[in-house]
Amino acid sequence: MQMMYNSPNYCVVAFPAQEDSAALSEGGYEIVAKNLKRGLFIHGPMAAHFQKSVQKLVKQPPDFAEMDAFLGQFDDWMTHPLVLH
């Protein structure tokens, strides 16, 4: 796993593809909203779409506010409470 982004409000960790795991056969991303104390794991087509969107966003280095606003779009989907972060 590799931390891709870490701000006071959000953290994004990339998980590489793993042949021995059906859920991670294509890799995935964990997105954590620190202020909400909830997270989301995405994989498959949603992870591919997320990756393309992030690549477009970082063509010109965004600041924390821009990146946090982008990640804020996922807040409603974050249903997993944080236990150890």
Automatic annotation (TrEMBL):
Pfam families: DUF3567
InterPro entries: DUF3567
Protein name: DUF3567 domain-containing protein
Organism of derivation: Candidatus Glomeribacter gigasporarum BEG34
